[in-house]
Design a protein that fits this description.
homodimer; 15 helices; alpha/beta; 49% helix; 12 strands
Chain lengths: 350, 350
């Protein structure tokens, strides 16, 4: 199992990426190919007091790097020798089993969609992070790749999210909820009303376990394993959870910092505080799978430190081992609406 | 100043409503008219060991009550002697200055829209709660009254929210943010892109202070005073904040309950814990203003206890005193798009 890592993507690249890769090689026994400016990577290794490339770690030189200034839609094409383009080419050529990047989400999405391609029949790739919830985390799909969606996209997200919850999170018969503003089937916009019917149909055919509409409050509290949303609402949900976690974490910090007695209290519950922090820690989650792409691609968040990169690498090989993409490929027929399937077969652009 | 209170609305009616009204009369020196089943209200007063109606409190009998089983759109019409319909008639007749109900949101919205009417030119009434944020709370408008919106609705929400933040929350030059999935003007769906331009225009004309798009994380952390959203996304935002607060509150509780030492820690920071809880306490906020209605109407949440009802009454007379609705009426011309203004004048249905 080999994971290809974009050494140049992210705010702390290449240092955190190199350190994360080193840790992953050591701790998981996985092979890692670091793609990027060879000299800079070796420099990082040296600063980490690693004189020789450890077994399992290789460096693939790429002379360019995609930056936030590049147009996300075309960056991979204009910078053919970027760590992004070179890395995805390695993935496509079968040199590695998964690709991890902490660089621009838009550039990674465009490059993965156009270079590695989606599974045939899947209309859009979706971002599917695991968000902290009362039931130990839920897959949120989509959370920002597609601001505007059709009911069919959401049907596909539901299937892909359900497979992910089963294969990667180990949830048996994962409960799929449609993010909505009420539980009744008539709630929400046209999109949710139409999607509800499709998901109910899939449920009745025994293809996934649709738990109905789920309100945001119940979703956070852990009512379902998969939260299906268009990218706009999913992003609002995700960022609100993150914001609330930060805001309340800061409030808690203030509460313990008031005086000597409250500082003593902090010492007494220090394990609890650590758990509380870990709950909201994006670094522990690692990255976000790009669901619907025909090979495992993981987006690590932009501010990834070494731990986050290491966890994203773990997520990459877990996804590769899980057989998840085979599941999607085998069942894609159930995720395509007849009308659009026919359009697809007639070669018309969708 | 007199506030009319629906004594029969809400999960804890009439008891909490009566108790809340009593408290408001005592603590704020405001008059309250309790509308509902006269016998049941007097029974409640008796159980609260109040033998005579205190000065400032009156009871108006209404023989019916709107329930969750009634069709929200027509309940006020089918139950002409309901506390909802009778209460709004009193408001319309000038017997009171504001109306408070903890009953069905849908029924209240329909009744207020059709009986009390919107300010002329305002297309839709919106729910505008104050949500807990890092800057001491922000007005979220809309949070569920209108799942599908036009750019013009959002422009109107922005103005009304801005006036509310200034007149009721006392924010000087309130910062208005458009809830979105990125800060660039091109982010989001068609709705956000078009609304951005309208808000920018209003900003450039010096009519409100548009701070641009705001991501959900920054909104929770307190970047703006007014969060403008369509009812669907606004509801997702609000319920996620509530859910995260509950979830993290429970985590914190668990952290203090582990053993004797952690229980000691809880005693040491008990003031801080109380503040933390208060931050997320819906009862302390009271209710949600129905912005755009031509008279002050407050929706208290369904599970309101006496404190929540009392706070909603305070909110009712604060809103009535603020002159906010006059501001909306005087400036509604700036909130209407030309095309739709013309349609309005031609008498065509909007």
């Amino acid at each position: 199992m080999k994971v290809i890592v974009d050494a140049m993507g992210g705010d702390n690249a290449p240092k955190s990426n190199v350190q994360g890769a080193l840790n992953a090689v050591k701790e998981y026994g996985v092979d890692v190919a670091l793609v990027g400016d060879g000299e800079a990577i070796l420099e990082c290794l040296k600063s980490l007091v690693v004189d020789n490339l450890p077994k399992g770690l290789e460096v693939v030189h790429a002379s360019e790097a995609v930056t936030m200034e590049d147009d996300p839609a075309t960056a991979f094409r204009h910078k053919k020798d970027s760590s992004l383009t070179v890395g995805l080419n390695l993935l496509n050529d079968g040199v590695g089993d998964a690709f991890v990047s902490a660089g621009s989400t838009g550039a990674l999405l465009s490059a993965a969609t156009l270079m590695t391609k989606r599974v045939k029949g899947i209309r859009r790739a979706a971002l599917a992070p695991v968000v902290p919830t009362g039931n130990g985390g839920a897959v949120l799909i989509d959370c920002g790749a597609n601001a505007e969606c059709t009911p069919e996209y959401l049907l596909q997200f539901a299937f892909m999210g359900s497979y992910y919850a089963r294969k990667v999170l180990g949830r048996n018969e994962p409960k799929v909820g449609l993010l909505n503003i009420g539980t009744e089937p008539t709630k929400g916009t046209k999109l949710q009303k139409e999607t509800y019917l499709l998901l109910q149909e899939a449920n009745d055919a025994g293809r996934l376990h649709f738990a109905g509409n789920v309100e945001a409050r119940e979703a956070v509290e852990g009512a379902v394993d998969v939260i299906v949303a268009d990218g706009y609402s999913g992003n609002i949900f995700l960022k609100t959870v993150e914001g609330a976690g930060k805001f309340l974490g800061r409030q808690m910090k203030g509460m313990f910092k008031k005086n000597l007695l409250t500082k003593l209290a902090a010492v007494l519950v220090k394990d609890g505080i650590r758990e509380f922090k870990a709950l909201m820690d994006a670094d522990a989650v690692g990255g976000t799978a790009l669901m619907g792409i025909s090979k495992p691609v993981i987006k690590a968040h932009g501010s990834s430190n070494a731990t986050a990169i290491q966890n994203a690498i773990r997520q990459g090989f877990t996804l590769a081992q899980s057989g998840l993409i085979d599941d999607i490929t085998a069942n894609v027929g159930y995720m395509c609406l007849e009308r659009e399937k026919m359009l697809d077969e007639s070669g018309e652009k969708l």
